[in-house]
Amino acid sequence: SQQGEEDPQALSIQEGENATMNCSYKTSINNLQWYRQNSGRGLVHLILIRSNEREKHSGRLRVTLDTSKKSSSLLITASRAADTASYFCATDARGAQKLVFGQGTRLTINP
Amino acid sequence: NAGVMQNPRHLVRRRGQEARLRCSPMKGHSHVYWYRQLPEEGLKFMVYLQKENIIDESGMPKERFSAEFPKEGPSILRIQQVVRGDSAAYFCASYIGGAGINEQFFGPGTRLTVL
Q1: pLDDT one-digit tens code per residue, B68-113
Q2: CB atoms within 10 A of CB A33
Q3: Nearest to B101 among A42, A48, A101 (CB)
Q4: Which of A107, B90, B93, B103 sits a CA distance of 20 to 30 A from B45?
Q5: Which residues of chain B make contact with A30, given a CB cutoff of 8 A?
Q6: Within 10 A of B1 (CB to CB), how many other CB atoms are there?
Q7: What is the 3-state secondary structure (H, E, C) of chain B?
Q8: Which residue of A has its CA nearest to B36?
Q9: Are B110 and B89 in contact (CB under 8 A)?
Q10: In chain B, whose CA is at the least distance from the CA of A50?
């Protein structure tokens, strides 16, 4: 079964607005991580939230985790054109030693 | 401390040829993962290796694909007799190992194009 499904698949907003992306997963996890990928490039690690944490901040990023609903959200505040990229959540499932990625959200910030 | 290195960054092969992708993990990291990303999709786990051992190859196709991580040198992902469907970006990630958070550091990827 698919683990780490993001929604929406694509999101287009104006510069300065906030962007919210969601991720759902199916199994128990140790932690959940968010990555950014610019077109044709590698992955940049953004933030990691452990299963016993509910919220975490890093600069303009805010991540929440609800283990009862098996979901997470990534909020980017005051978006900039440079935030245009694909964003992926990845779960580190208990008992597994690999990351399971979702399909990603393609975020476009319009100037 | 250099990050995860992959080479080549771009590789073009004709159908039937072999592709060899290399990954040098971060210094001190003895665990390597390989992932494949098809266009417009997320990364899919292929194989997890420690030095000289394959720990989990549940994501590897049964035929034509193999991986190794020798005692000395980089990890190699080898694809024999490539087909057009093998065209993808292949990412390597390394992990220091041990108990605790499985924080993986990703390389820039190798983009394989099969003509």
Answers
A1: 999 999 999 999 999 999 999 999 999 887 766 778 889 999 999 9
A2: 24
A3: A48
A4: A107
A5: 101-102
A6: 5
A7: CCCCEEECCEEEECCCCCEEEEEECCCCCCEEEEEEECCCCCEEEEEEEECCEEEECCCCCCCCEEEECCCCCCEEEEECCCCHHHCEEEEEEEECCCCCCCCCEECCCEEEEEC
A8: A101
A9: yes
A10: B101
